[in-house]
Specification:
Layout: H1 4-18, H2 22-49, H3 52-59, H4 62-70, H5 78-96, E1 99-105, E2 110-116, H6 123-140, E3 146-150
Parallel strand pairs: 2-3
Antiparallel strand pairs: 1-2
Length: about 180
């Protein structure tokens, strides 16, 4: 399997199937941890041997980048990767909201952002912008626990329903004709 998300999903499925027997599940969890540690140590040794330019080139591959992130070996910090993700999504944001500022990445894994300018009175646009930002950030930094975007809160749409004016009753029909 070359798609990391597919592999992660399949791994979760297999572990869930084993979940019915606690002794088997515990052993499966230990096996997964040992394999991750083994491959992590191998990746650590490889990255130490690589020139910085080669590590950058490897980190440009999504699958390799995910493995480097998993083992805390990615050459760019979470904040740097979030910043790069925002740069990639800025052209889209310009057409909807203007821009976005990175306020910081907390030790708790929460990324704080602030929108600069917004489509006035358009809650669906704010939701679209927020979703695009979250998707870009989480793709670049899957270790992020949460993305908080100030200025892009989902606002409930206010629908005002006015009473209908009373209808006038038509005059009774006389000989099939109205007066």
């Amino acid at each position: 399997m070359t798609d990391l998300r597919d592999a992660e999903s399949r791994l979760e499925e297999l572990l869930a199937e084993l979940g019915g027997r606690p002794d088997v599940r515990e052993r499966a969890d230990e096996l997964v941890r040992l394999l991750i540690d083994l491959y992590g140590e191998g990746l650590t040794r490889i990255t130490r041997l690589l020139p910085a330019a080669e590590l950058e080139r490897l980190a440009a591959d999504d699958l390799v980048a995910s493995l480097l992130i998993l083992h805390d070996l990615h050459p760019h910090s979470t904040a740097d990767r979030v910043h790069l993700a925002l740069e990639k999504v800025r052209p889209y944001l310009g057409s909807h909201a203007g821009g976005v500022e990175l306020l910081g990445v907390g030790d708790d894994g929460v990324v704080r952002l602030r929108l600069e300018g917004a489509c006035d009175g358009c809650p669906s646009s704010a939701a679209t912008v927020r979703d695009a930002i979250e998707r870009a950030v989480l793709d670049a930094a899957p270790e992020v626990a949460e993305v908080r975007v100030d200025g892009a809160e989902r606002e409930p749409a206010l629908l005002q329903i006015l009473p209908r004016p009373p209808r006038e009753c038509p005059a009774p029909l006389r000989d099939g004709l109205r007066p």
